[in-house]
Amino acid sequence: MAAVAAYSSPPISSFNSLSSPIAAFSPSFPKKNHTHLPLSKLICPSCRSNPLSTPILSLLYTSGSHSQSSNTHKISQPRTPFSSAVDSIFVLCTSLALSFSLFTADVGSASAFVVTTPRKLQSDELATVRLFQENTPSVVYITNLAAKQDAFTLDVLEVPQGSGSGFIWDKDGHIVTNYHVIRGASDLRVTLADQSTYEARVVGFDQDKDVAVLRVSAPQDKLRPIPVGVSAGLLVGQKVYAIGNPFGLDHTLTTGVISGLRREISSAATGRPIQDVIQTDAAINPGNSGGPLLDSSGSLIGINTAIYSPSGASSGVGFSIPVDTVSGIVEQLVKFGKVTRPILGIKFAPDQSVEQLGVSGVLVLDAPLNGPAGKAGLLPTKRDAYGRLILGDIITSVNDKKVSSGSDLYRILDNCKVGDKVIVEVLRGDHKEKIPVILEPKPDES
Hints:
By secondary structure, this protein is of the alpha+beta class.
């Protein structure tokens, strides 16, 4: 209340005192006894404005100074007792009105007299803040619940076994995330930016590329799809932004740059390679999986899916599945509930085992007879009657493209379509053979 005290008016009884500002401006006193207060006494300490700039004080000063002599006018008009009394009453009423307005003003605190300067941000900071505010409503929090039986009561309970992030794909309620975020879930719950929670059902998933699509029955006015960009023209060094829920913390933004392109990682579910992955140094921690990676315009360019870290926390090497790969997968999952991808229909040995044999290629461990390779006549690895291991066919090339590892084989098949006929060259015993194989779709998975 210091500001109010500074602006409180003197008691009415003091209006007849020469030391009060009202008496100083009153014209009813002789000029020789005028005691003028310094104008600095009336200046607001926070704004330092001229007191005469206010209409009431300006009027008071004009009224009081109208009997003053100036250098130009040497003779002043004689004043009648009636005019002096009218002036005194006018000044008294005006000062009362001023006092009443100061006491009834809702000053609250000294902040009413303080003009605070707005926080100044640089242009790049403003752009980052705007990007976060515009895209946060599109990012969701996913809770993975698993049904477990209590050991003592034998009751079946739903226990949270993991969490992750996701983003809204369209107004129909489709949510895109990583497959490993929802793997093994008996129930899924999606929390939107306004903290409203909805049960979600699985529309479909692609284990090989670690992508899954959920759907929630939320009002359309709460669903804000994320703007989808392209990942074909990305450059190393451009800024990227990751939004997610690391460690369960609500909507966190991390920034960085693209530190590498065309990386290759393996799917956590099947081990199948995911190609053309984006590498970034934006902090990606547990809980960020499934969240969006955005460019400086706020468009989606990838899904944050994995990190390279011995400790499990961010080490500055994160990986995102490019949006060009994700878009095609999501379209198939939304339309068909599954991804139609061609397979050769074999199980092969780890690359290290083949290297120990001193050969280069993919060793066929199993080729079911109802699969494409089994129908074409590829031989699996087996044991004879004495328990000795008989190696199966070793695939060395497909369509004249060299195959030296399982990743090479997957990379070639990703460029093929269901129904395509491929020429598989195998090393059988001490000679090579070329076997035509017709690719078939991957069987449905529950």
